[in-house]
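Throughout our pipeline, every protein is held as a single compact record rather than as scattered files. Nothing more is needed to write down the fold, since each code stands for a local backbone conformation. For reference, a complete record is included directly beneath this paragraph.
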Amino acid sequence: MKDIINMSTPNLISKHLRIAATAEIMQRDSPLLQGLTAAGFAIDSGPDGSGLWMKYLNRGGGYYIDVGASQLIADKKIMIKQGQEIKVIKAPSIVLEGDSELEADEIVFAARYQNMREAARKVFGDELAEMVNDFWGFDDEGERRGMWRRSGHPGSWFFGGDLALCRFYSRLLAL
């Protein structure tokens, strides 16, 4: 039932409803968010302040859901370096472009998200990738682009997202 309720709310109305909720959450989490910002973690409130869910629907990525590391980052027990290219890994450190060097016990790469069109290009080649529509975000009618609908290439349909979206749309796509 929850899937039907979530999916029946028009995306533009859902976005509007989420703006106040996002502001409240950011206010409640303000000490943690300030600590993350001070540690160099980029914080934003999603498209027009509408939060993570709308960011997910717009990009399919570009966010982090706290599963325990946020406070460790804010406390600088986990160090991060965003927005800089790695020049070389020289154990036990990383040399960044501009020659700044960071010592590290462990290195975790959190690579940027790429649009599904680029994944399609790798699997199916340039010809199909150029024919398919963009993915994620919304069209002029407020509907999601590229997913669970005609893709722009005859006979090619793309499917993705979190469990709730896949659970709901897989039944419709199967028809």
Observations:
- Residues 81-112 form one domain.
- The chain has eight helices and three strands.
- The mean pLDDT is 86.
- The helical segments are 2-8, 11-28, 30-38, 52-59, 70-74, 116-124, 126-131, 163-174.
